[in-house]
Design goal:
- The chain is mainly β and 92 residues long.
- It has a single domain, classed as Jelly Rolls, CATH 2.60.120.
- Helix content is 0%, strand content 63%.
- The protein has no helices and seven strands.
- Strands 1, 4, 6 and 7 form a four-stranded antiparallel beta sheet that branches. Strands 3-2-5 form a three-stranded antiparallel beta sheet, with no helix packed on it.
- Strand 2 and strand 3 form a beta hairpin.
- This is Tumor necrosis factor ligand superfamily member 13.
- Keywords: Cytokine, Disulfide bond, Glycoprotein, Secreted.
- It is found in: Secreted.
- One of its GO terms (biological process) is immune response.
Length: 92
């Protein structure tokens, strides 16, 4: 049985790279599927170089599914605080 879920992801970036973003992936039985992407322009001035990237969508998740938030930059400036960067799922 599959569950219908609302998935919400927000990441707060603190970086002067011209764009930042992330990909939400689903893994099940060795298969990886990209569900959502978020791309955000960033200010070039380090004193104000903060921006959030938020995305949400409704997806079916099978038992055994795992969700992953992937930031495809090794040196990305991510603020890891509960109120700023999070993944939430709500059953519909």
């Amino acid at each position: 049985m599959r569950d219908l879920l609302l998935c919400c992801v927000q990441v707060l970036y603190k970086d002067t790279t011209w764009t930042m973003g992330h990909v939400i992936k689903k893994r099940i039985h060795g298969t990886v599927t990209s569900l959502m992407k978020c791309i955000q322009s960033m200010p070039s001035n380090i004193t104000v170089a903060q921006n959030t990237c938020y995305t949400a969508g409704v997806h079916y998740l099978e038992p055994g599914s795992a969700l992953e938030v992937s930031v495809p930059r090794k040196s990305a400036g991510v603020v890891l605080k509960a109120h700023a960067t999070f993944l939430g799922m709500f059953s519909i």
